Amino acid sequence: MGMTMTQKIMAAHAGIESVKAGDLIEAKLDLVLGNDVTTPVAIGVFEKGGFTKVFDPEKIAIVLDHYTPCKDIQSADLCKCARDFAIKHNIKHFYDVGRVGIEHALLPEQGIVGPGQMVIGADSHTCTYGALGAFSTGVGSTDMAAGMAAGENWFKVPDAIKVELTGAFKPFASGKDVILHLIGMIGVDGALYQSLEFTGDGVSQLSMDDRFTIANMAIEAGAKNGIFPVDEKTEEYVKGRFDGEVKKYEADSDASYSRTVTIDLSELEPTVSLPHLPSNTKTVREVAGMKIDQVVIGSCTNGRISDMRAAHAVLKGKTVADGVRCIIIPATQAVYRQCLDEGIIADLIDAGCAVSTPTCGPCLGGHMGVMSAGERAIATTNRNFVGRMGDTKSEVILANPAVAAAAAVAGYIANPEEVLS
Amino acid sequence: MISGKVWKYGDNVDTDVIIPARYLNDPDPKALASHCMEDIDASFAGSVREGDIMVGGWNFGCGSSREHAPISIQASGISCVIAASFARIFYRNAINIGFTILECPEAAEAIKAGDEVEIDLKTGVIEDKTSGQTFHANPQPGFIGEMIKAGGLLNYLKAKEED
């Protein structure tokens, strides 16, 4: 029987001819990732396990992005623990304040991950690198410790859902709307233990940033990973960044899928997820007029340059509505710098936005935009669980950057077209 | 053999409610346990007793990869989580830290909060002493059971190395 893209990458890294769904394999890892929340726990497990050496200091990335610049003494202690470990073990891809960006925007941008690789990260949104045609999945701290010690780990080969994309976007629809729509269709456990394999003519219409956003939220459908085929856009993106070999794995024509889902991009409307599950989707049209107190534009989901440009296109020359706080967080220093060069940041500040150095901060209710009871945010982040951005009685609505920016100007959920007209 | 009183929750219990991110800056298991389930059940951390059992619905442990979630439940004294299904990272993390979890949709549906439940880990038989009902959990595949028995992934890898 044929294999999916995911299964082919797994077989290659397990050093075996073929795998099928359900097989338990041990596979070699190209990269092991952790952040300031998960790495200290992994270090504890690593050291308690009696390990003194990492398998390869060039294949580990430690990115201090969650509570940085440190919000309190305890988070400073966590960063110090991770920093000391990175220095002691000569970790090549160690990123601290001043160089750091949000891990899943930073690693592709810096060429630390590439097509065909097998990557684990102690962060659930590690599935983002599937946009590059890699197998990458989120794990916990013990898996990170085992990965750092052994350079390999165990995996159950997943079954797959084929997501066939056709057509091209209408204005103000984007990768975020694809993934929110998909999660709305199949549910937050619709892809549990499975891979989401994106395919079809529509893929060529998607920018790399759209693909990163889509793969990023595969976890919100319960998926083990989301993956895209490698095409000219992927090759163009990795050129000059990634110096490894670009390996393309294509699905066999007789690969097996548990189901096929088709999404016509031309039919997608700007979409939001209402509290408290990402699957609780509505079109912007259906919920227009809902009042908001805060807007967050950034995160590993939507903090890339095209997201900043989309927000800018709506906010330029406009003013953030009275009573609304609009927080904009470019995901990496390079994105921040690019925004400066293009004049985006000046326009956002003139509009009344707060623009921050890269951090995960508000997305997980860490800092830089935590909410009080009864407040509601529209955010380009990835989760709207109870208490995710602050008090358990606060609410998060997920949206794309243009929709979030439109809400910042209107003070309520609105179609970007309406705000611009 | 495990037995204890049941703490019952619904579907899609996510790791943000199991242990909110505002407490992740202190990863000490006891500190985590003191805030476990706080955002959906403020009474849990103060009242849970050693050996008690947690029962959830579908997709238990979805969301963030934070291992702090199963650590906080384990450190609170809970001996086992029974759920209709588990989100995959939570499932993996629980096994990796040697924490017992059982998948059993029938038990997850029927068992009620406060019931006294007894679990035979060898056979996977779950007995609800309060209602008198008996359920069979899906067995763990061979090496996963061994990993839990060894006390987690690192111990398992070490034992394998020493063999």
| Sheet with most strands: strand arrangement of chain B | 4-3-2-1-5-6-7
For the report, how would you describe the main beta sheet of chain B? 7 strands, mixed
The best one-word shape of chain B is globular
**CATH fold field value of chain B:** Aconitase, domain 4
Give average pLDDT of chain A, whole number. 97
Précis, in short:
Chain A is an alpha/beta fold and 421 residues long. Chain A is 31% helix and 18% strand. By secondary structure, chain B is α/β, with parallel strands linked by helices.
Provide the descriptors you would attach to this structure in a database record.
heterodimer; A: 421 residues; alpha/beta; Aconitase, domain 3; 5-stranded parallel β-sheet; 15 helices; globular; B: alpha/beta; Aconitase, domain 4; 7-stranded mixed β-sheet; 7 strands; 18% strand
Structural overview:
Chain A has 421 residues and is an alpha/beta fold. Chain A has 2 domains: 5-264, Aconitase, domain 3 (2-Layer Sandwich); 271-420, 2-Layer Sandwich (Aconitase, domain 3). In chain A, 31% of the residues lie in helices and 18% in strands. In chain A, the strands form 5 sheets. Chain A has a 5-stranded parallel sheet. In chain A, helix 2 (39-48) packs across helix 5, helix 11 crosses helix 13 and helix 11 runs parallel beside helix 14 (401-410). Chain A is globular and about 60 Å long. The mean pLDDT of chain A is 97. With 163 residues, chain B is α/β, with parallel strands linked by helices. Chain B has one domain: Alpha-Beta Barrel (Aconitase, domain 4). Helices cover 34% and strands 18% of the residues of chain B. Chain B has helices spanning 15-18, 29-33, 44-47, 68-75, 88-96, 105-110, 142-150, 153-162; strands spanning 2-8, 53-56, 80-83, 101-103, 116-120, 125-128, 134-136. Chain B has 8 helices and 7 strands. In chain B, strands 4-3-2-1-5-6-7 form a 7-stranded mixed sheet. In chain B, helix 5 links the parallel strand 3 and strand 4 (101-103). Chains A and B meet through helix 2, helix 3 and helix 5 of A and helix 4, helix 5 and helix 8 of B.
